Amino acid sequence: MGGIHSTIFPDEPLEMGADAVITGNGDLVWPKAVKDALEHRLERRYSGGRVPGDALLKARWDLLNPRQYTFPTIQTVAGCPGNCSFCSVWVTDGRQPRQRLTSKIIEEANELYQKGFRYVIFADDNFNPATLGRIAREPSPQKRKQLEQIREERLKFFDEYGKAVPQNLLAFTQMTTEVTSDQEYLSAMYHKARLRAALIGIESFSEEGLRSANKQWNPTGRKMVETIQTIQDAGISVLSSIICGLESDNVQTIRTMRKFALESGSILAQFTFYHPYPGTKDFYEMMNDAKNRGKTNFVPRHATRISEERFWLKPMNEADQIRHANISRADLLAENQACWDAFYSVKEVLRRLRRGRARSWPLVGKFTYLLLCLIFRRIYGGQGMAADGVRRKSLGFLTKSLIHVGVGAYNFFFRKDSVSVGQPWSRY
Predict the structure, then answer these.
(1) What would the DSSP string read from start to end of 28-90?
(2) What is the pTM of this model?
(3) Residues 38 and 102 in one domain
(4) Both 78 and 204 in a single domain?
(5) Which of 25, 168, 207, 384 is positioned for an S-S bond with 272, CB 3.0–4.6 A?
(6) Are 135 and 15 found together in one domain?
């Protein structure tokens, strides 16, 4: 086994029956693990570490049937300089951004284009790790210099990518609001990297919520609404990722957040439940609180409590993983449901289609958006998508049917079938 959880708790998979565990990045260590397995001398643990950017490998797309993949992924940079208290990305992948070789990114993008893809996902946890805003708030002179160098590398990458990759290969990614602090960077992402949509960690519209998430540099309230609109006015549609149940949340703050989310005009939004992912700062602090609560002179860091130590091993609702300090379980579930219901109501979806760039979308684009809202709501409602999350429930018949219709429409309208039959997957 490998991945985020195995990297943080490598002993757990072994305790539960795994033959071997790979921690860190698998790019360099995976061939050895496969070779050892074939030769029946598998080791218990392999350490992949944090692979340098110039050693990050591209996927073997020649082994897969591209018609079974809607959006292929390309990684351009690993690591994130942020340290949000609820996020495990910087814990496992580090805070030092590692830029992948531009030539390798271009090679992979052009290969995917030849296979008929016209949209790709840049699978970076932070596509804009070094904007002017991020550099300006960095207190360490040495770190600031490193970020300045990374910014120059990113701008150079955008320039070379824009010249070498077909103009009609568009992209989605994940980034932060700090991109609005850097007009040159924002423009390059749209015009050269050809980004057309991005998941952005809004987390909360309140100062208290952002403080509890250790993300105080994010704008709040009306300023956040304006920030989202600025990004969308630049041509990049926003999927706002918003957390319900941060430690400072109560019924009223969630309702206020819902109002701001609707006003923002975000093309998509997800309203996730807060829970301390294993390995995060919040997780370790809450576990320490649990072990020491009741001791003389001990002051807990959090009022919210983890329900039990290894909660992820039990099939429980996400709202049951913590005992919230300021909101009951019933109210949290109800308010989260109200967020999803309001944002994806027919009234609000049609309202968004009459605003901003959506007004100029062709009829096919508007139909696709309506279908996307239906599918997104049914798949991710109440949970959302996350790099360190996993879906527990299987999809229902109607949801699967909508996905098949959506993929079929996407393949018909937005792909060019240029796949040859001489690929390895065609033999099976």
Answers:
(1) TTHHHHHHHHHTT---SEEE-----GGGPPPP-GGGS-GGG-SS-EE--EE--S---TT--HH
(2) 0.88
(3) no
(4) yes
(5) 384
(6) no
